[in-house]
Design brief:
This protein is of the alpha+beta class. The protein has four helices and ten strands, in the order ββααβββββββααβ. The protein has one domain: Thiol Ester Dehydrase, Chain A.
Amino acid sequence: MENNFSFKTRIQVRYAETDAMGVVHHATYPIWFEQARVDFFRAVGAPYDEVEREGFASPVLELNVQYKRPCRFGDFVDVETKLVHEGRCKYKFLYQVTLNGELCTTGYSVHVFTKGGIPTREKPECIKKVEDKIFSD
């Protein structure tokens, strides 16, 4: 299934997120990606805390980050997030970090829903309600 919805999260680079060279440390991007996922779920109408209240979790199975251009303290970056199916149980978030429209970083994370710590094809009700908004046939 193809993605039908994307969401942008705006993040201001904090001083603590930079390294000795004055650029965003490579370990910061997965944290930004996590914030973007949480914002995505909220924007689509299925807040992640609701997913957890229904007894589900969504662990990261795989993470990829590709650095194109540095970001620096004080920059305002946009993290565009899209969601695609990755097989029958897995799904993948795609990320693009831009600064003033210029591509800085791309990446993705692969996830699966779990219930009671066990991977499941079952989806939380809050996700089922918004699937048509997220995906097209």
